[in-house]
Amino acid sequence: MSNPLLAFLVDLLRRDEERRPHRATVRVAAASAARASASIFLVLRRMRAPLIVLIVIFAVSVLGLTLIPGEDAQGRPWRMGFFDAFYVMSYTASTIGFGEIPYPFTYNQRMWVTISIYLTVIGWAYAIGSLLALLQDRAFRQALALQHFTRKVARLGGPFVLIAGYGRTGELLGHSLDRLGRRFVVLDDSAERIDGLELDSYFADVPGLAADVRDPGTLAVAGLDHPSCEAVVALTDDEEANLAVVMAAALLRPDVPVVARVTSRSLAQRMQEFGNPSLVNPFDRFGDHLRLALKAPASYQLLTWLESGPGEPLPPRGDPPRSGRWVVCGYGRLGQELTADLRAEGLEVTVIDPDPDDPDDEGLLVGDGSDPWVMAQADLDRAVGFVAGTDNDTTNLSLVAAARRANPRLFLGARQNRAASAPLFAAMDLDALLVPSEVIAHEIYAQLSTPLLWRFLREMPERGDAWAQELIDRLGGLCGEKLQSLWKVRLTRDEAPALVSCLGEGRVRIGDLLRNPENRDEPLHAVVLLVLRGSDTTLAPDDDFELAAGDELLIAGWPAARRALGTILFVDAVREYVTSGRRTPSSWIWRKLTPDRPAAAVDGAGRR
Amino acid sequence: MNLEKVVFGFFVVLAATLNFGFFIGDISDPELHNPYELFAAVVVNLIATVLKFGDRTQIGAVHLATSLVADLQLIGAALLFGYATYVSTAGMTASWTASVVSLSGGALLANIISVVLLVVETVSFHRG
């Protein structure tokens, strides 16, 4: 054995070792691709018998015609050739019937043709019937849908999000992502929801497949192994299924971030064991939001505004009572989180539940909330807040109505479980409304839209209420009452060539940059929410903040401002005018003709 | 014994033998090449092709490919035969006959590959 061959073998083996994590994904994908192409094989396999029957019938009929003696026009004996026989059988079998060609048949021939007509018609009917039955077949249609879906996903060029579970939450998240111009792929167990996908008005084409999300093969087909898959979101009602998605994503694509909906703590812990998925618990988040609303109403207002996505108006500011006693109806997952959060804020809480898990809890009132006697026990007259948090919308509505009648000054909160009940809850005019599906959708939108927004939202509450109030005023003053557009700008040589070239020479302040390229006295309708430099963040920097190369900016503002800023960052002359007020020629010839002015402008910028 | 395998083997071998029967003999002598044999070869080849539909293995794919080649050649031979008998004024001359038979010879090669595949498949099955 020569040494080079040995070296090659060793190299091959070692490369195999390195490739192992990838291989698992490739294998899963190959299995699913094979399943997708199975539909063609299914057709071929099922058509075997009808086709063979057809061929045999044709062959027997043609052979018979060539063997049976006939007569030509003059009455001389004549035998039909193969071509004539095939021609006659072809138009006879397909019921076209041109007649007796080339000479009138003898009785002997006619008897044979009569038999052949019945045989061939049966053969055709059998073949066509089998084909139509196959097209109607459920398994075949599913195979076709799978193949169609696989092709669509494989053709996705840009980055996309894989959403497993397309209920109310998935729909909300899908619309938010679509408004941002992001692509996504949908998986759901229910075929109805996937059919509904086609009726939804999305800008982009959304591939959807009705299949079991717990199957890693399905996830692979939906793009888990696609290089452009940028995130996986598990949003099904079934927490076990979400866990399965988290597991599959963590094992097959450890580099892709995973977001999962979870409400039980034990399952949350099991998910945490796989990679580092981002978990969203709607009840926990509602409790956190309520605490934030209690401590800092303006911060909470800003948070909900930015989370709700582009095009949404500024939500009204709630003013929950900060002292006094709260009454919480329903001590399930929401009730427990909420009670803990309220107590942590130093508030007194009375809980009403007909069948609590731990009846020893102090302040717990065992009984049905809709019972007037129980409500009287809760002493609503001296309470300040009331939350109806059961998992039944009718109960929640009647509880809120009863509480309002008992004490009209109460701060009222309720949980809305079904999307269909939304108009009723809206008519109730509540102070706080928890819609679990919306909470999850907003939260995941904030995480997926840009990592900078997520970072901003997490760090923003620490800045206090007055700071948030000031930022809301700035946003409202510059961009109006509706959140227009949120985008990210990276000050690199690729994304901001005009600015980066002058960042090295002079100082550029945010206030100088965000100006109208037509008239620099007018500000751009945009506000910088966050500047990320290395790992340091600066929230809502003021106009004097100095930019440096490599900074990442999160900006909220008008779409027009986004386009204008793009021009400023790319065109040197526009950037020069906006930052210094000097009009410099942008064409090469003109710059050569006036050689002194650009140099002077740079000097001026440097001296300032 | 698997009846499906018997039928499959029967048609594959029959396609090759019929083809061989038509092919053998002086290439330019129409008397030695019976049109009925060509017809039977075309029909049996078509049936063998359909029997090979829907097999997802690699060897199944090659099987199907060889059968399609044989079909193409035999149907080409049949068309030439028909043209010579019905359209051409000269009828089945030596050159026409040679063309038809040489086309069927090509089909025979494909059919032989098919039979070899069948044998290989069988042998490897017994070994495994």
Automatic annotation (TrEMBL), chain A:
RCK N-terminal domain ranges (all copies): 158-282
Xref: InterPro entries: NAD(P)-bd_dom_sf, RCK_C, RCK_N, Trk_Ktr_HKT_K-transport
PROSITE patterns linked to this entry: RCK_C (PS51202), RCK_N (PS51201)
Keywords (A to Z) from UniProt: Membrane, Transmembrane, Transmembrane helix
Domain of life (superkingdom): Bacteria
Domain RCK C-terminal: 491-571
TM spans (from-to): 50-68, 80-99, 111-135
Protein name, entry field: Trk K+ transport system, NAD-binding component
From TrEMBL, chain B:
Record's keyword annotation contains Membrane: yes
Pfam families cross-referenced by the UniProt entry: DUF6394 (PF19931)
Spans traversing the lipid bilayer: 7-24, 36-54, 61-84, 96-120
Signal sequence residues: none
Highest taxon listed in the record's lineage: Bacteria
Keywords associated with the record: Membrane, Transmembrane, Transmembrane helix
Identification of the protein by name: DUF6394 family protein
Species of origin: Blastococcus jejuensis
